[in-house]
Amino acid sequence: MSDTVRTKGHELVLRKLHGMYERQGAIQRELEEAGAATNPARIVELSRENGRLEKSLSLYRIFLKLNANAAEAMQISQDAAEDQEFRDLASAQLVELNQQIQPLLDQMLDEFLAGQRGTSDSMMLEIRAGTGGDEAALFARDLAEMYRRFSEKNNWRFDVLDFSPTEHGGFRELIANVRGTGVVELLAMESGGHRVQRVPQTETQGRVHTSAATVAVLPEPDQSAIEINPADVREDVSRAGGPGGQNVNKVESAVQLTHLPTGITVRMREERSQHKNRDKAWRILRSRVFEFFDQQRRAARSDARREMIGSGDRNERIRTYNFPQNRLTDHRLNRNFPLEKIVAGDMSDLLMALRDLAREQLLESMLDS
After folding, report:
1. C-alpha distances in Å from residue 229, one per residue of 258, 265, 285, 289
2. Which of 23, 273, 281, 300 is the Cys-Cys partner for 268 at CB 3.0 to 4.6 Å?
3. Which of 99-108, 109-118, 242-251 has the lowest mean pLDDT?
């Protein structure tokens, strides 16, 4: 991130935080009014908002104190009426305070940008085999294993909700719920097309094939963040079919939900219990509907910007896994990484670089608008 963009980002964040600071003052004044006691529902609403603001303003309060001390030190250092030794001490204090303020501004900016992707620590990870037949399905399986290993390294929960296996051990589709601190922001840039170049297990002549899979990262919203009218959802139940057309069980445990306004469909058949399948299907449906409308909002705000920087959509090729050369190339970063480490779940360097890129793009988009 360039120094100019970062400085403008500091100014933007300070404006946002100052507005929140003033809003908190207004809330506290209203809570202190005698009339507020006669409206318990209003008190609860204001108290919750006050709590959210207090958490967001913790660093800003430190900044205000440091900034006030810096202003006082500057005034003393420039006051000709003061003793020279006292002025020198104030100048030294001013340097020290500025050294504390600058990293604090960076920290506030990073926290603000991180919060723009939402505060959810739960997401749906959807991986689907693309072009390449059986090899694409095996690649989809390997991607799922890569993310599972990375989740273990970060002490995240990685729970497979549904998958469609192939006879050679691959996956046509896999849906997992990943939960943990920072999971959404760190994996958000994984959405897109992933391409692999390697010699398939079934290749007898040693030729390198190119296959593909797609990854979609869908933050799991709180139920309060997305309300779906049950009347807008059609539910169909059926028997859960197993491999080769056989029935997993004799009862109608598979559940399919269709969100009529958007046409989004979710089918869940992994569990033998219809109740469990319904719960899982609703969780996935909420995430997909939330992402559908969130994408529309983002597109409406900044169509031109998204065209220029790339959207990270699942149809966009974002990365190539070249096994013969042990090289992973991320096309957004235009950088190479050691493939063996990445597929083993050691993805931190790659994902941190992508997180920083996403923050920079988000900040530039906000400054443009």
Report:
1. 12, 15, 12, 12
2. 281
3. 242-251
Helices (H), the chain: 3-32, 40-56, 58-77, 84-115, 133-153, 183-187, 274-309, 339-343, 348-368
Closest CA to 225 of 117, 350, 311, 140: 117
Checking 363-367 for CB contacts under 8 A at 24+ apart, the result is 363/1, 363/5, 363/9, 363/12, 363/109, 363/113, 364/5, 364/305, 364/309, 365/302, 365/305, 365/309, 366/12, 366/116, 367/5, 367/8, 367/9, 367/12
Average pLDDT of the chain is 84
Residue appearing with tokens 């190539």: 320
Dihedral of alpha carbons 61, 63, 64, 66, sign: positive
DSSP states of 232-272: GEEEEEE--B-GGG-BS-SS--EEEEEETTTTEEEEE-SSS
pLDDT digits (tens, 9 = 90+) for 203-218: 667 788 899 999 998 8
- 40, with CB counted inside 10 A (0-12, 13-18, 19+), is exposed
> Could you read off the pLDDT of 260-274 as tens digits, one per residue?
988 999 988 876 788
310 CB contacts (<8 Å, ≥6 apart)? Answer: 316, 332
CB atoms within 10 A of CB 92: 12
Spatial neighbors of 365 by CB under 8 A, at least 6 apart, are: 302, 305, 309
- Asked if the model's pLDDT at residue 57 lies above 50, the reply is yes
β-pair type (171-179, 122-129):
antiparallel
Q: Cα separation of 362 and 306, whole Å?
A: 10
Task: Phi first, then psi: give them for residue 338, nearest 5 degrees.
Answer: -65, 115
Confidence grade of residue 241 (pLDDT, cut at 50, 70, 90): low
Average pLDDT over residues 291-304: 65
